Predict the structure.
Amino acid sequence: FTLEQHLSTVAWLYASEDETRLVSGGEDGRIILWDLLSEEQADVLVSTFSQSAHNNAVTQVELATILYKGKPLSVILSTGKDGFFKVWDADSRLCLGVVATAATEATAFAYSASRSLVYVGTNKETVSIIRLNEEKDQDFCLEVGSIKRRNYTRCQQIIIENNSIFILITDSLF
């Protein structure tokens, strides 16, 4: 099984909990959804403005299930070096929501399903807090706050342990 549809290096891989799908994000800005049962590419996600999901490298992608209008919906969450956090419908491949962070890069994120919150790290001093409005079509993603960090290093990883309010943010100079 090879990921030959990316135009450059694959930067991130994430498998669904049931191990039937894989999502890959590349330095080419593309996000590709793969069907692991048939070992075929399911689809390439594109934005309305370009041939790729992000206008720069994808820094993280994940598959998640959210409640949307009371029903489970499979989504792809992504961040990129273009400074955007995006939510995609994994079945229709449509972009449901976009939030521009206050930085040049959105570098990492963690999703809290119990709170419908996404914490998005950047290459600046802030971590954006984004609420997924699961009952609305408009303003599906809404920035509701931020956490100020002490330095301007690149946020490398955000971890939420057992849906707690405590989060771990690791930094990198690179």
